[in-house]
Specification:
By secondary structure, the chain is of the alpha/beta class. The chain has 8 helices and 9 strands. One of its GO terms (molecular function) is 6-phosphogluconolactonase activity. This is Probable 6-phosphogluconolactonase. Belongs to the glucosamine/galactosamine-6-phosphate isomerase family. 6-phosphogluconolactonase subfamily.
Length: about 260
């Protein structure tokens, strides 16, 4: 793996302030990559993140971001129909993507039929094939070590237990390095069947940003403290790095134990 980066963090008084900063960060990178290479490859998670992207749907971003140059991927996906309330694709489509002008062909969802059939292993294989084809088409470059696809920006949340994507504590998927996309059939958080980028793919991104807002149960705050104060690698999110910048955006509650 090429050089990786130190964790940076910013703490915001409110979720609203975090959303404003998240929009600014994303729009800045969108402009930079669209100018430099004509496209912007963005990876999304599910969860609260999609709500926190709301400021991108407002002025000045809604009209100034070059949405037609975006290519959108999912860092993890639940193996269910695209219409299911559990689907990360549906969440992002309903709450974000359908409201901006990203071309349909630039939206790379989990295979519709395979997901509806509930075959997690096959869904992971097909999603990896999709990424490999995009490497061949030169939409995605490979990381400097030539082993993994490299995205421009990955935006994700973190679960209260310290999971990121569908890499959970006490599950073996965090150790997978010979695949780009793997699967889980016993996720501790429902639904049990999911696919997920593997850790080396996640960490090959140029920019990685994790947004965490605690719901005042202190669970996220405890995981954040384990990551930032103890570097507790039992928490999958503690393994996050990036090739250029690893940024954590925390609300006051999530940062309360730092
Ligand atoms: O199950 C998932 O959880 C994480 C965190 O979600 P949140 O609701 O705690 O914000 C999410 O990033 C992931 O994509 C999703 O599948």
């Amino acid at each position: 793996m090429a050089e990786t980066t130190q964790r940076k963090r910013e703490v915001f008084a409110t979720k609203n302030e975090l959303s404003v900063a998240l929009a600014k960060y994303t729009a800045h990178l969108s402009a930079k990559f669209c100018k430099e290479k004509g496209i912007f490859t963005v990876v999304l998670s599910g969860g609260g993140l999609i709500d926190w992207l709301c400021k991108l749907l407002e002025s000045p971003y809604k009209d100034s971001v070059e949405w037609s140059k975006w290519h959108v991927f999912w860092v993890d996906e639940r193996v269910c129909s695209h219409e299911d309330q559990n689907s990360n694709y549906k969440l992002a489509m309903d709450g974000f993507i359908s409201k901006v002008g990203i071309p349909k062909e630039n939206i790379y969802a989990i295979d519709k039929q395979c997901a509806a059939n509930g075959n997690a292993k096959r869904c992971a294989t097909l999603y990896e094939e999709c990424l490999r084809n995009l490497v061949k088409e030169k939409i995605l470059p490979l990381s400097p070590n030539g082993q993994y696809p490299q995205f421009d920006l990955q935006l994700q949340g973190m679960g209260p237990d310290g999971h990121m994507a569908s890499l959970f504590p006490e599950r073996p998927q965090i150790n997978v390095t010979d695949k780009w996309v793997t699967y889980i059939t016993d996720s501790p958080k429902p639904p049990p069947e999911r696919i997920t980028f593997t850790l080396p793919v996640i960490n090959s991104s140029l920019y990685n940003l994790v947004a965490v807002c605690d719901d005042n149960t202190d669970q996220c705050a405890r995981s954040i403290a384990e990551i930032f104060k103890s570097n507790n690698l039992d928490l999958p999110a503690a393994h996050l790095t990036a090739q250029v910048e690893t940024m954590w955006y925390l609300d006051k509650a999530a940062a309360s134990l730092l």
